[in-house]
C-alpha cells in the first residue's frame, strides 16, 4: 500500500490497496476548490494566483473554464445544480446560473465588506454556508491587499431565500474548509490559523446544527499532525476526509485517524466525483490528482 499509511483497520474498507494515485493535471500556481457536476461529468476547480477557473473531464483533461475569475477559491454545487463560488477578488460569494449569468449571493455584513470568502457548502434547504478568513486581503498574490472591515473571521449562513449573511460561528482565527455530516446535523469546520500563528492548533471542529440553521456545542473533532486542515469532505458513512501537508487524512465519525493517502505535494482540497461518485479528486499545490476509493460523498448523488 505504497500510497497509504494505515492507522486503523477500518481504513481498509475505504481504499483499494492497488489503486493508483494518478496525476491528471499539472502546471497550476495553487490549485483549490474542486467541485463535481454529475450532469456534465465535469470537475471545476480554481487556480487562485493564476486568476482562473479550470475544468477537467475524462475526455478533454484540464482546460480553462473561466479566465479572470476574480481570484476564485472554493466552489460547490447547490441543490439546483448551479455553481456557487467564493471570490477573494470580489470579496464575495457568487452563483452561476445554468445560462452562465452570475449573481451575488453575499458580499457584505452589517454594511461592511466581507474579508475574502474562502470555502462554501450548500445545505439541502437551499441555504449557503461559507467561511470568511483574511487570506485574500493579506497580499496581492491571491486577491487585493486591503484592510479588514469585519470584526473577525466568521462562518456565515445565507438563508434559503437569500438576504444578508448571518454569522453563525465567530470564534475561529481563520475558518477554512467546511462540510456537513450525511444527515446535516453536524457541521465540520477547519481551523487554518496556524498558517500565520503557530499558537493556533491545526484542528477540525464540529458543531451541532439545529433545523433553524443555528449551531451550538462547538468542540474539537480531530487534529492534523502534518501541516494544517484546509479543504474537508464528509463521505456517506460519516467519515471526514481532510487535506494536510502530507496528503489526505481520513477520520472516523468518532474522530479516530483511520489512515492517510500520501500525496507528493501539499494538499489544499478534495472532493468526490466520477460517474459513480467513487473517485477522490485532490487539488495539491501545482497538480490535480485522482484516486479510486470505496467511498462517496455524503448525499451522493443529489448533493454533489
SSE layout and pairing:
Blueprint: E1 4-6, E2 22-25, E3 31-37, E4 42-47, E5 52-57, E6 61-67, E7 72-77, E8 83-87, E9 92-96, E10 102-106, E11 108-109, E12 112-113, E13 120-122, E14 128-131, E15 153-158, E16 166-172, E17 175-180, E18 186-191, E19 203-209, E20 215-223, E21 232-234, E22 240-244, E23 247-251, E24 257-262, E25 269-273, E26 279-284, E27 287-292
Antiparallel strand pairs: 1-24, 2-27, 3-4, 4-5, 5-6, 7-8, 8-9, 9-10, 11-12, 13-14, 14-15, 15-16, 17-18, 18-19, 19-20, 21-22, 22-23, 23-24, 25-26, 26-27
Describe it.
The chain has 304 residues and is mostly beta strands. 48% of the residues are buried. It starts with a strand and ends in a 12-residue tail after the last strand. The strands form 7 sheets. The chain has a 5-stranded antiparallel β-sheet with strand order 1-24-23-22-21, with no helix packed on it. A 4-stranded antiparallel β-sheet has the order 2-27-26-25, with no helix packed on it. It is 0% helix and 47% strand. The chain is globular, with a radius of gyration of 17 Å. The chain is built from no helices and 27 strands.
